[in-house]
Structures are given as structure tokens and as C-alpha cells.
Amino acid sequence: MAEITSKMQSLSVNDKPSGGENGSGAINPGGKYIPPHRSRNVDSGDSSAGSFNGGNGYRRGGGSGYGNGGFNRGYDNGGFNRGGYGGGYGNGGGYGNGGYNRGGYGRDRGDRGAFGGSSTHKRGNRGRFVDGKHIAGAKDERLELELFGTADDSKFQSTGINFDNYDDIPVEASGNEVPEPINTFDTPPLEALLVENITLARYTRPTPVQKYSVPIVAAGRDLMACAQTGSGKTGGFLFPILSQSYINGPAPLPERANAGYSRKAYPTSLILAPTRELVSQIFDEARKFAYRSWVRPCVVYGGADITTQLKQIDQGCDLLVATPGRLVDLLERGRISLANIRYLVLDEADRMLDMGFEPQIRRIVEGEDMPSVEDRQTLMFSATFPRDIQMLARDFLKDYIFLSVGRVGSTSENITQHIEYVEDEDKKSVLLDILSSGDQGLILIFVETKRMADNLCDFLLSQDFAATSIHGDRTQRERERALDTFRSGRAPIMVATAVAARGLDIPNVKHVINYDLPTDIDDYVHRIGRTGRAGNVGVATAFFNRGNRGVARELQDILKEANQEVPAFLETISRESSFGRGGRGGSRGGSSRTANTRDFRRGGGAGGGYSNGGGHYDRNGGYGGGSGYGNSYGNGGGYGNADSNNSWW
Ligand SMILES: Nc1ncnc2c1ncn2[C@@H]1O[C@H](COP(=O)(O)OP(=O)(O)OP(=O)(O)O)[C@@H](O)[C@H]1O
Question: Number of structural domains, the chain?
Fold first, then answer.
């Protein structure tokens, strides 16, 4: 600290940077900061570095000083400023004294708490199922406004100019006797109240995945559905299970249910998803479409007060949205029975396996009182379906229909993808260039580690950008607050680890930046899918350098599939790395990670049989390691620990 202070004092605006410690930015005689990637001749064969905005200067005047993160925690924690010695030496920018105020944004979380407003379930607006008939509850205008907003409310996603283009995406449905898709919401088999709620949500037409899923579930079939990010998969499972629930009513309680002191809930539908944010979001959607119905949705996830969750469950729980770890906890406490489950949904199942949830999932599905695969309907949804998850399907699904909207694991053409060659030490300055280039709506920046998320967020704050961060080490409250400030635009930049990669539906995310590329190409697909949703357009930029050559080939394939420009350096590096790895084995075509086949049951596919994919994906000592299907599970990760945050993200 003393050393830094003395360095700061000894520097003037015209000083050369001291190098090393501040990321090697340079300051020209006029006091203008020259970012390192400009002041150096880039010779890595990339023509793209620094090409973002035609050379905007930094509007923050002077500031280099990045690279000395680690200061300034406590952003978005409501007003106090721990600026410390902040960033700053080597610049004339004057932010080094804690002068920027990180409070401000980060309040007004309101009272959604763990369960969202529970007013949905006031007696009056709750529906009933009497004598085989669904009787809708009374209307509640205030609640309607809360659930559905108004057409011009930016908090709610509206469809974009390319919404109709979803109809042009080729759909493949394989399996026995695939039912005909519906084309509109007002045709059977959708139940009348659900159609009313869909209208309140201002959905005018079903997306392809919804067109198929509704009749498939109505026909009593199981489903594995793979559709691009942002194309309405949540409705794809909520619509059919709610509609069928409204038509069929609740399952009768088992005879011994709630005998004596037992206070168990007997949900009819169970939706499992990997992260707290995702289950909360699914729950919010379920509240909309369950409005005025007999179905009462509940949500449970780790990291939040279990007593509050139990109280909510006690008030009724017909559709339960849960992370696997917390659900196991509740099962152990004897507060939930799965004996009445008719519909089981696994959303983002591949991520749940990545996170080490497989033991919990197997316990929930096979080791408790859930009806067997023959006596329930099981649905699996994701935008990517690696082969191992298709294998899991063999145990959980029966005679299912495999639905793929577009190619499995492909990205939406609504997202314009840029891959820029950026060396690690240049990333910050290139990022500043992008962020300085104008109003771009919300910007989501992905990094690989929690530490990096903190560092980068601190750095951006030090540069006067209103940023927040989300990662697995932040408390649930902090994570919710971060999401809220981001959603509302009070902090229009969010630095995130993979916790925010899947499923999150945040309107107005215009740009996703992969500051660090993931090592798994499926993660890339999900990350960039936070933009370009519901027919809206978006931009995704990835910083690529030789350290990312492991994904070069797959990235190139993805760009081609989505009709995106493939930079020359990517082709070169991808050729080099394919050569180094002995041909196409590690590529998307032959990878065991992402299924190239549409329906695994059809066998073979471009990559050959499952066991010869090469380089089985491995994370957390997960299910990797083996060739061959037989030993691909059986991961480490210790039973019961997956709700904790042992991971790096
Ligand atoms: N039929 C529809 N009409 C209009 N908007 C829709 C329709 N279905 C879904 N949406 C909207 O599209 C957005 C994306 O939907 P959703 O979150 O279900 O996508 P997803 O396919 O699950 O994406 P991801 O793969 O990222 O999880 C949401 O804001 C949702 O409200």
C-alpha cells in the first residue's frame, strides 16, 4: 500500500507508465492513455485486434491504472464506499480516491424474496377443481399487472423483428407416432384458462418447440427437446403440463397422506433446474401461467432460508420448481412426497450433470417414492444435448420423442457473432474500447473464475462504469441484487461466471462478451444465448487467443452453422490444433461432448459410436475419463454437495 501510494505520488500525467503492475498501458505526451494493444504491433496473424470502434479515445481521460484490482469490494451493497486507494496510479484520471460511488444501484430489491410475491395464491384468485371441472379464480387487476406488466414495460421481454423466422427453422421429431404439431394457441388441446393467461402474456403464436411439445405431452408421451436459446423452451414445458393439469385436476392424495403430524406436500409436477436464478425465473413464469388456476407453484433452492421455503410449501405446493440439492434436503426432512408426480421436467439437464448433481437427480427420480417411468411423464429440455445426457434419458424416459429445432447445439442466427483476436494482457483495454463505444443496452461479460469476476467488476467500477457481478461465491441476496440492478439497467454491465450462462431471460441484453472463452463449446452456445432472444437481435463478441485453441474447431463449426463470418486466424489456429490432435477427433464432428446426431437412438452419426468420440469432457472430476458409455457416470463430487459452491464459478 505504502509502495503504491509513493508510486502514485511520484507519477505525473506525463510520466511513462511504470510497466508491469498496471497492465502496461502507455500515456502519450498529451496525457492521453494509449491502450497496450494499440501501442504494440500485433503480429499474431490477426487483423482484428483493436478493430472495435475505430479508435475511440477513452472518455475517462487519462486512466490507465487497471490491473491493480483487488480493491473495492462491496459494490452494489447500498451506498457505502470502500474505495480505498483505488486503481489509479499511472494516470491523471482522479478516480483513485474512492470518488466514484458504488452505492446507489443495488437497492430496491423489493420483497420478492425467495418466493416472489405470494399474492397469486390469495384465496380469491385461486382456482378450484370441482366435480371434474376446472373453475378459475376471480380476476385480480393488481396481480395481473404484477405478473404480466404492460406492453411497453421494458422489464418484460417483447418479441423481436425476427420472431416469425423461428418458423423457418427445420424441426425434426423422431420416435414412434409423433403427434401433429399445433399452429395456434387457441386450438385444442390447450385448456381455456391457460389460453387466457397466454394472451395476457401477449404471446400471439407458439414457437416451434411449443407447437410440438403441447400435443406430445397431451398424448401422454415423454419428450426430449432441444431448441435454440431464447426460443421458448420454458413455455414448451409449462404450457403442456399446466394445460393437462387444468384438464385432469389434482391427483388424489395417497391414503396415508398427512396422517398424524405429517405435513407433507404432494406436488403433481416437478421441475428440476441447475441454478437458483433459473429456478426462480421458471417459478415466475409458472406464476403467470398458473394465474387463477388450481395449481399453486412453489420454488426451493439452496442458499436461501429453508424455514421460509417450508412455510410456503405448507400453504400448498402443486408444481414444484427446485434445484436438486435443496429438494433432497426437503425429502430427507419428510416435507415433500413425490408419490403424486405426474410430470417430471429436467431443464438444462446437461448442466446439472456438469455440476455434479447426478447422484441427487438419481436419488430423486429413482430412490424416493416417485412413480416409475411408466407411470409418469418425463420431459427433458436444453439447447445442447451431449451424448451422456441422452444416455441418462435411457433410464428416465420411455418411448420418448426426440425433438430438435434446428441443429442440436446450434446458435440462433439472431445473434451476430464476432471473434476477436485479443491477447490476455490486452483484454481490459479492448473491453474498455467496446464499452466506450456507445449506448448498447445491457452488456453481459463472461469470465471463467469468481476471482476474475470480482477483479474485472472492480476494474470497471474504477473506470466509472456502473457494473455489478454475479458468481457462486456471492450470497444469494447479493446475487439477486446483482441481477436486479442489471435487469433494471441501474448497472447496465454485469460480469458473470457460468452461473449466469444458462436459461436466464433478461430483456434488453444487447451484447454478450466472452472475455474468457469457456473450454466447453456448449457453454459458449448457452452464454451467447443470453442475447438475441424471442426473435430480438443481439451481438456476441469473444476474445480469442491461442490459449483457446482447444475450442477453435468447434467455434468455427458453430459460426459456419449460424452463417457467421469466420475470421482467418480462427481457421488457421483450428487447422493447427486439429493437426496437433491427430485429425478431426476432437472436433465437434467427432466430439463425445456434443451430440452431432439428432437423436442418439439412431446410433452412429458423424462422430461414430459413442465410445470413440475422443477427449470426453471433464469438469470437476466429473463424468469424464472414460471411453465408452459404461463408465461415463459414477462421478466424484460427493453426494449432497452440489448445491454448495465448490466450483470455480
Ligand atoms: N410464444 C411466444 N411468443 C412470444 N414470446 C415468447 C413465446 N414463448 C416464449 N416467449 C418469450 O421468449 C423469451 C425466451 O423464452 P425462454 O426463456 O423460454 O427461452 P429458452 O428457449 O428456455 O432459452 P434458454 O435456452 O436460454 O433457456 C422469454 O422472454 C419468453 O417470455
Answer: 2
